[in-house]
Amino acid sequence: MRTQVAIIGAGPAGLLLAHLLYKAGVECVILERRDRAYVESRIRAGILEQVTVDLLRQVGVHDRMDREGLPHGGFALSADGELTRIDMAALTSKSVMVYGQTEVTRDLIDAAIARGIPLLFEAEDVALHDVTSARPVVTWRQDGEEKRLEADFIAGCDGFHGVARASIPADVLRTFERVYPFGWLGVLADVPPCDHELIYASHERGFALASMRSNTRSRYYVQVANSEKLGDWSDERFWDELCVRLGPDAASRVTRGPSIEKSIAPLRSFVAEPMRHGNLFLAGDAAHIVPPTGAKGLNLAATDVAYLAEGLAGFYRGDSSGIDAYSARALARVWKAERFSWWFTSLMHRFPDTDAFGRRMQMAELGYLRGSPAAQRVLAENYVGLPLH
Ligand code: APR
Ligand code: PHB
Known about the structure:
Helix content is about 35%, strand content about 25%. By secondary structure, it is α+β, with helices and mostly antiparallel strands. The chain folds into 2 domains: about 5-70 and about 95-175 and about 270-345, 3-Layer(bba) Sandwich (FAD/NAD(P)-binding domain); about 180-265 and about 350-385, D-Amino Acid Oxidase, subunit A, domain 2 (D-Amino Acid Oxidase, Chain A, domain 2), CATH 3.30.9. The protein has an 8-stranded mixed sheet with strand order 6-5-14-15-16-13-17-20. The chain has a 6-stranded mixed sheet with strand order 8-2-1-12-19-18. The model has no long low-confidence stretch (mean pLDDT about 95). It binds adenosine-5-diphosphoribose and P-hydroxybenzoic acid. P-hydroxybenzoic acid (PHB) binds near residues 45, 211 and 219.
């Protein structure tokens, strides 16, 4: 087999890249390790920046998002129960779209199949070869048969645990990491949300987040120590802890119900540089991870592939400047989002080694945010997403 761009991974990065290339008339093949049902079952965050919404509209995969998505012009901070609304629409003239990553992935897969974009599921043991040559090759096993794909370029969109980043030599790759001493215990439940917007709560006992997937499906999180075991968290214990941390006002509006999904996710900040090695490009979680506090993971994947698709389309028009600038351009945006996600996580969570002074600093910053339109605008413009260009 031969193509112009071999894409490893059918998550948001790989799928959106495929559609952007399709719109630019660039051929690609997507190789995905898991089966379709698994990929479409993964529960992930659900906040789309305006830039991501625009990209989905640009590739024509927005109909269900426009029907079922919830535009949000603000969110609330809760500090020991006192709520402060951050009016993003007034502060930035922008909003975000609440629409689950699961739904984005399903829409992108449906559209890829409808468009005839080659999307191969259950591609086993994908391996990259000769990535610094003019003819990189991808091999894998499918239905027991050895397969081979020659391409001009390989896009490593295979997530944090993929093979693409591992194909960059250790003496070339530089990594930067911060592992947080806690995780998020998340619950999905078919109950109405406790508020019409998200609530990020800082409490003596730890962070909590009230989010949603629709007006009938809620997504809640509480910060837990890395030593916590999922089996020790009954639904009742979760609801009790959530209500304490959200404070009495929000808690009075929480509707309890059976969890339909419950999991603990670790939090880390991670960046790999460079995001290009020869004719291999990294995009999305393959290159970087953010703590979910700022809801940047999906949105960074989207802007990575927007830059990459622009560069690849330019190459086939005879202009290599876009692919040559890709790594520096993507990393400039990645690091700004990493900083925001780290700052917001540091502000809202309880760290085991935070002493009394550290807690006062957190409360002072939350108090400053409560009273300062300037401070709120900085938070709002990072949350809605910085401009793509
Ligand atoms: N070969 C082929 N496919 C692979 C391999 C491999 N060796 N390893 C991983 N994959 C696939 C995974 O099964 C997954 O479907 O690559 C895809 C990577 O998707 P994501 O992990 O979702 O990463 P990305 O597309 O960059 O999207 C980032 O997803 O995980 C969330 O929080 C993250 O919101 C962020 C977003
Ligand atoms: C979610 O709805 O899953 C969600 C929302 C906002 C975040 C993180 C997760 O910051």
